[in-house]
Design goal:
globular; six-stranded parallel sheet; Rossmann fold; alpha/beta; Quinone Oxidoreductase, Chain A, domain 1; 346 residues; 11 helices
Amino acid sequence: MLTVNAYAAPSATGALIPTTIERRDVGPHDVLIEIKFAGICHSDIHTVRGDWGPQGYPLAPGHEIAGIVTEIGPEVTRHKVGDRVGVGCMVNSCGECANCVAGEEQYCLKGNTGTYGAVDRDGTITQGGYSTHVVVTENFVVRIPEGLDLDVAAPLLCAGITTYSPLRHWGAGPGKNVAVIGLGGLGHMAVKLAHAMGATVTVLSQSLKKQEDGLRLGADHYRATSDETTFADLAGSFDLIINTVSAAIDINAYLQLLALDGALVNVGAPPEPLPVQVFSLIGGRRSFAGSAIGGIRETQEMLDFCAEHGLGAEIEVIPAGKINEAYERVLASDVRYRFVIDAATF
């Protein structure tokens, strides 16, 4: 076992603290990665605070990992020492079910193995990227193209793929009107990606305080949902709405913004239910859907797309000692638009 420095939550209510965690020995198909940067996702906060169910502690979160391969197992063929690589929200799956075979490991019928807080194949609880090193089976490690710096690439392993996957699946592109609810860690990447795909992009935010940013990132329009005229003006406008907000909103009001056969796709994950009136769907043959991350193949596709189009996350790099402060700032929407931890400070 390899003992490495990390930051972990000791309980659902305690601040994250410096500690050490153990990584398994490198197996035949494993890759040892020296982590360079780890993004802070809103999901990290939900998970360590028990919003999505009880957890085992201590727990080191982090599933936006970018680093360098420092050791490989004897049977590894996909990566080599020195490669620039990333690890996202999952580190394993059954590999045998229909969804895994189809390259949709995120929807593994037996449940994929999350990067942290999940039962690993050796029976231990996985620990995430708030650490200096991680050991991952080669099939769940992706290549970070040379055109992407590691710090701006780290958030793409969650925020990037979480928005890229539904945009691709629901056909964002030229001639499509796409709305993005919320301009945060997920939302700012949704705007960048939808714009690069050729769609007409509108940001729907509570206020106009981030309007300048939204237009700079690629939005064609920016509307405040606190303005009572917004929902009347935009009724029936959008082919696709990506909801990135991890809080309760009036889904029925937003469904009225969809054109015929339009879809509202939730990628934000609030802990409370979101009530939907059936007539909000029936009226325009509308769909209300959800989407998780992408599979490994699609994650690599996303990284290559971002490198081709010069897309990276908008980040604020912090030392490990500021993680708890960063959590409070995320909850206060005081980050533009993703905190990234310098792993050298663990």
